[in-house]
Amino acid sequence: MAKPTQEDLDNNVYHLVTGANTGLGFSICCRLIDEFLLQTAPSPSPSTLTIIFTTRSANKASDTLRRLQTHLHTTHPSPASSSRITLHPETLDLHNLLSTRLLARRLAATIPKLDSVVLNAGIGGWTSIDWPRAIWAVCTDLVHSVSWFEHKVAPKGVLAPVQTSGSGSGSEPRLGSIFTANVFGHYMLCHNLMPLLRNNSPESPGRIIWVSSLEATLAHFDVNDLQGLRTKVSYESSKTLTDVLALTADLDGSKPWVKSFCTADGQSDDKEEGEEGPMPNIYLTHPGICGTGILPLAWPLFYLMLCAFWMARWIGSPWHTMWTYVGACAPAWVAGSKQSVLDDAEGPYRANGGGRVKWGSSTDRVGRDCAASTEIDGWGHGGVVGGAVVEADRVRRRKRGMKDLTAHEKVEFEVLGRECWRQMEELRGVWEGVLDREEGKAE
């Protein structure tokens, strides 16, 4: 592939979205299309948008491509608009770490850069719901129970499929199923995509955008059980790990391991010696509470769930986005906004000693959406010690029991982040060796 000019890099935008077959991932793709064309509509623009979206099979990829094309041509019927959008399907199985390598190699051979990677794919792993407790909670404590739903049932210790050929259960390191699908598969993918993510200008670095959950909380996470194999809340554990990694990625304590993660294999991290561009920015988002298929329900129960969400929104919940297109607000905003817009949004938090923000999709009572800071235990609003410094954060309904962040809690969160980054990089190093040996067998 011919080396692109700087003008080509500046005028062409490339986003990768994982898990785009249905629900939130599909809606993120739709919003990226809609907002790109809206932002560039006032005057003729030479810029183009390429969305690479992943599904687990070729059949799902074809179906998703057809539905995205339908959305594009229905919502933006102008041929001039449609001609500026390219939709590129890919297959990816996050339970298969070799699959993450193969995808990165295919993309490196076909596109010049990645402006953002939206890490949306994942699984819940729940097997049932404790219905008596769930019904009682919804009837007696609606907003809290349908925002932080504590009645899902999941087994402990579920492992991901064996990664290497001819391996028995004891011949390779264990990988938790939820941990691999929600965190580690994406982690390995992003490391392999670093040459593309770092082929951006310093004014607009690449972005790694994790999609977390409102349910993430430190109460569900144990750093000595990083993969969540000893807990019945492995989904919530994986999302809490996601939060910790993303929010501490730009802190000095995590820097050695983050630099290692952001350095492509076989390349130098020293810009004077290598040709790598700026390290990507790592952001954290969540979709609020919307109806997706991650919690499988029969259709009557699914619509009853949406009714409960609607009532919670009218009572005052800021997080019940209900529909996946609205839930896609925050991830699409972080992916598609100019760097200056994101820097300005983080500005009030950084000016008061904070850092990264967990951006959530939020709505008012009538469904008008926006990206809003989400208060989380151990980090507060954007890592600012004390009360909220942004007016919208002060008036937004809080989770019951939340208290203003203390300096001690923030230090503990930073220490936790450093340890999580260390363990993740050590685990990645182990698995890079395992995969190298596996690929060597196939040659």
Automatic annotation (TrEMBL):
Please indicate which superkingdom the organism of origin belongs to.
Eukaryota
Q: Which GO terms describe its molecular function?
A: 3-beta-hydroxysteroid 3-dehydrogenase (NADP+) activity
Q: Which UniProt keywords apply?
A: Lipid biosynthesis, Lipid metabolism, NADP, Oxidoreductase, Steroid biosynthesis
Q: Can the keyword NADP be found in this entry's annotation?
A: yes
Return the SUPFAM superfamilies for the record: NAD(P)-binding Rossmann-fold domains
Any single GO BP term: ergosterol biosynthetic process
Gene Ontology cellular-component annotations: endoplasmic reticulum membrane; lipid droplet; mitochondrial outer membrane
Q: Which family does it belong to?
A: Belongs to the short-chain dehydrogenases/reductases (SDR) family. ERG27 subfamily.
The name this protein carries in UniProt is: 3-ketosteroid reductase
Classification from the root reads: Eukaryota, Fungi, Dikarya, Ascomycota, Pezizomycotina
